[in-house]
């Protein structure tokens, strides 16, 4: 875990691919893509779907450690309509029951808009972007121009390649901090990455195993 | 000679030959005789000696002798490895077929054939049908496949040596097993160039029936002349930089004194560079010089081939794209730029010239770095000793099996026991276990671990004991992705005004932006826009630009060639310089000797040197790049057992460099230990867990099994919600389905193909029996230099990512450091657009 400050607010960047604000007790995460492997399976592509359970378990671990009161999902909770099978919905619902007191808001992303309505039983509020909360705006897409409020966002699944002549190179999922927004890594384990090109003034925090480290 | 019932037809065939001023060769007649006796077999001769007619006339004579009024339908199935060859084959088969069996139809089918024709072909096939392994696989997905081929007499596998040793070969084996099951009496004939293991090639072709097969070879010798264009002065630091262009004047002289020549390069980028350079150097060549490689659009390639055949081309710059196929009789000279890396390949290419019975094949070798002189000298010696490389067949790839099983399930469907027996009749799957077969069946019917027993997975369904596919989406998607040829995602290049130029790799295009110019297909093009996997371009007025580079395809030095190469070096170290190539190398060898040592036959040279980058360890086994990649990883891994470290590895055909961030003591005892054969397999498996090698192999496997589906360039997008990269599949399988056999296959493929495990083991054994010569030179030696400057380095680490990352200067890799290929500028740009 790495502590830093944005917008005069302390935040924790978690190696489990989420952001926690200790003062307001809000947990932010993005791009879970639940049911993605199931959507693949229904198209006849053999892929194990057990990652759904482990992703939810990882989320439970974070919730148990940081005890957030509120969770904001920055889009792409479910991957596709084809992936919202009975088995997937039952798994997610029973996970929700364990954390029934947690308030969850979903800022709808492109995949959510094509996945059909959320089941009422999941008890998740949906919101359009930008969803304002205190000093911050929450949206799925990174803002294209300077936003009114500092924005937390997702969608991109950011990663960078680090290189060192002596230690070789490797690709890392990362948090990308600019003057205007903080871009979160994709939370889901069956998600691809997109290599970003940060500007000179940007800050990059890479996830290496169970640590978050700042790249220079 | 054949039975009396064939004598009349045979006479007509002989007359036909005579009417064209030809006479059948001995081996051709022997082949016909065997065919008429109903046998199967393999015809192997040097390039361009009449294999096609050796295979064609047996079934033709048979048909001519049969009573008329037989049912229409397929009689001869001709399988060719390259789409591009199908049209040429059609041309050369049509001639005698039209004359001798005018009632027969002859046609082809490849991925390029129109939809209307395909529909016609799905009802009835012509008597002679030319196709590729992939198109044959698609035919298998038709429910009436058995009816389509029931009248089949013979299957001819053209250029069988090209298919052998690849997964496409395995796909062909499976298709043949299917064909034999439907038409038990069919005869199979393979046509092959000279191989080191023709007997094996026959066994692979015929599977369990191989004992009845016959080998027919050509005894006539073809003369080969091998010349090397030797630079006047050699570079003492041999690194692949100048690409042989300094020898351009001498190459031009050869071109100008020949009637028509083929100039082979080892990569497509090199072909582009040579084409530009030739035109720059001699503007008179414009209009009579062509460029031919696999990424250039078919139409343009065909135009070049046509002009070549008509004798209107002075020179065609090409890659392996012209290795195979019809011979261009005007060609009297072949030029090989860079090492052929194998003796068989040099022979094959040389054979593209002097293509007349009794003609002399002439090849000029052009070194692209000074050490290649050593390789040319060794290759010539190899040809003298008739030391031809074998091709090793691929065994039991489960990805190909999974694909084929779905094809059959879509077509006629299959019964569990029958299908298992059918698979086992092929060479590739003769040892297929029930457990492996069951895993594949499970993979295509159940699709791996699931959340619950009730699950939406749908691909192959079992109806009683029959396995079938009914879902039309699955069928369509499968047909689109049939085949095993895999490549990088390609972007189609098209003119704004219409007309295709060819295809380049996505990674190249990603480094360009609108308005940039680049050189491709011998033209300077300007990037206009990129839409749906198509790059639209227009002609550019720029003077130059980057040339696309294509991944892969680099052949390692063959075992046979390495052996001779080590002998040559050993001699040179003892002051014996066998030929003029070796004599030219003397200054370099002297320098190597004075700074370090020349590797002797019974010794293994190791050099080490520590500088601010860390410890550089160089070892020179001269066993080819692949083996060195395995060795380098092994040495790095075992060194890390002393102390954890991160290594970057660099390899070439002569040796490898291990650069370590930690400093180790290097002595005989340490090197013996890191190069020992003990625990070899265990150590390698551990390495594979930490390296990217298996993940990279999995890329192909994911495509073959249809996990990853990229469609065809220009054919539009696939549904976004079911797209994922092969590495994502790899990670998720490793984590959530560790028993997945496709992952195990990726590991096996790395062991067998990538690391050449057998050769690796024998290399380590040779090292253990040799004296280690350990030198700490003051300067990096000439042999070390090319390894040192190689930018494409592998990383191997035993440190955790977080340990490593804490030591790394966390530097973002700058895109600017990664140039989009080689940039060239043209001198005589104005001559080009004439």
Can you characterise this structure?
The complex is a heterodimer of chains A (216) and B (834). The model of chain A has no long low-confidence stretch (mean pLDDT 92). Chain A has one domain (2-215): 4-Layer Sandwich (Purple Acid Phosphatase, chain A, domain 2). The two termini of chain A are 18 Å apart. Chain A has 216 residues and is of the alpha/beta class. Chain A is built from four helices and 16 strands. In chain A, 19% of the residues lie in helices and 35% in strands. In chain A, strands 8, 9, 10, 11, 12, 13, 14, 15 and 16 form a nine-stranded mixed sheet that branches. Chain A has a seven-stranded mixed sheet with strand order 1-2-3-4-5-6-7, with no helix packed on it. The longest helix of chain A has 16 residues, at 51-66. In chain A, helix 2 runs parallel beside helix 3. In chain A, strand 6 (103-107), helix 4 (110-113) and strand 7 form a beta-alpha-beta unit. By secondary structure, chain B is α/β, with parallel strands linked by helices. Among the domains of chain B are: 223-388, P-loop containing nucleotide triphosphate hydrolases (Rossmann fold), CATH 3.40.50; 398-481; 600-799, no CATH class. Chain B is 41% helix and 17% strand. Chain B has 33 helices and 29 strands. In chain B, the strands form six sheets. In chain B, strands 3-4-2-5-6-1-7 form a seven-stranded parallel sheet, with helices on both faces. In chain B, strand 20 (523-531) and strand 21 (534-539) form a beta hairpin. In chain B, helix 1 packs across helix 3 (51-65), helix 24 packs across helix 25 (668-674) and helix 24 (625-639) crosses helix 30 (757-769). The longest helix of chain B is centred in the first third of the chain and has 18 residues, at 83-100. The N and C termini of chain B lie far apart (59 Å). Mean pLDDT of chain B is 84; it is low at 712-718 and 814-834. Chains A and B meet through helix 1, helix 2, helix 3, strand 11 and strand 12 of A and helix 19, strand 25, helix 28, strand 28 and helix 32 of B.
